[in-house]
Design goal:
This protein is α+β, with helices and mostly antiparallel strands. The protein folds into two domains: 1-61, no CATH class; 68-203, Umud Fragment, subunit A (Ribbon). Helices cover 27% and strands 33% of the residues. It is built from six helices and ten strands; from the N terminus they run H-H-H-H-E-E-E-H-E-E-E-E-E-E-H-E. The chain has helices at 5-16, 21-28, 32-41, 46-57, 98-105, 182-186, and strands spanning 67-74, 83-84, 89-97, 112-116, 131-136, 144-150, 153-161, 165-169, 178-181, 190-200. The strands form two sheets. Strands 2, 4, 5, 6, 7, 8, 9 and 10 form an eight-stranded antiparallel β-sheet that branches. A two-stranded antiparallel sheet has the order 1-3. The longest helix has 12 residues, at 5-16. The protein is globular. Residues 71-197 form the Peptidase S24/S26A/S26B/S26C domain. It comes from Photobacterium proteolyticum.
């Protein structure tokens, strides 16, 4: 799409029925930092508009009263050594009870997305082939299992505070823990996507 960044951003918000950048990022399955990068480059990728138009066309399809449709992203999220992410594509969705999400899981459904679990390093907490529910956050707040990007790789690991910065732990003891320095955590190569708050899988 041609035009200034502000014109492109306005069109995106119109297509996705959003008004704030944070809401736009959530609907598109991106982080607010990604939108900042678009602004810095003064360009929004064409595939983002394709996704926004698809979202706009599906906007009239709503879940039954009392239920919410959570987006499911078919991305290479690795619970092993990490997988290079080339694209994030909204492939399908799943329906959950809104009261269950708010009262039992303790999250706002508007800040939730679903991702597949691939790899065995977080076993038995996260099992390969399962689905995890990710609560979008912009930064590490407390110890827990997080989906994050580092060095162009998207991973799911247990993050813990350490004197050096963050300790990265796999629940499968055959994988050695490693650390991210404070400098690495603050660098552009590191980005927290969200915290894992629920997981499920087929028997």
């Amino acid at each position: 799409m041609k035009g200034s960044f502000e014109e492109q951003l306005k069109e995106l918000k119109k297509l996705t029925n959003t008004s704030k950048n944070v809401d736009l990022a959530r609907v598109l399955g991106k982080s607010p930092k990604t939108i900042s990068n678009w602004k810095h480059r003064n360009h929004i990728p064409d595939d983002i508009f394709i996704k926004a138009r698809d979202i706009s066309q599906k906007g009239s399809m709503t879940a039954p009263h009392g239920y919410v449709e959570l987006p499911f992203f078919e991305v290479e999220v690795s619970a092993g050594h990490g997988a290079l992410v080339e694209r994030e594509e909204l492939s399908s969705s799943m329906v959950f009870s809104e009261s269950y999400l708010r009262n039992e899981v303790g999250v706002n459904p508007n800040n939730i997305l679903l991702m597949p679990i691939k790899g065995d390093s977080m076993h038995p907490t996260l099992k390969h082939g399962g689905v995890m529910m990710v609560h979008r956050v912009n930064e590490f707040a407390d110890d827990g299992v997080y989906v994050f990007r580092f060095d162009s790789r998207l991973m799911v690991k247990r993050l813990q505070y350490s004197k050096a910065g963050l300790k990265v732990v796999s629940d499968n003891e055959t994988y050695e823990p490693w650390e991210l320095s404070k400098e690495e955590v603050q660098a552009e190569d590191f980005e927290v996507i969200g915290k894992v708050v629920w997981t499920g899988q087929r028997m």
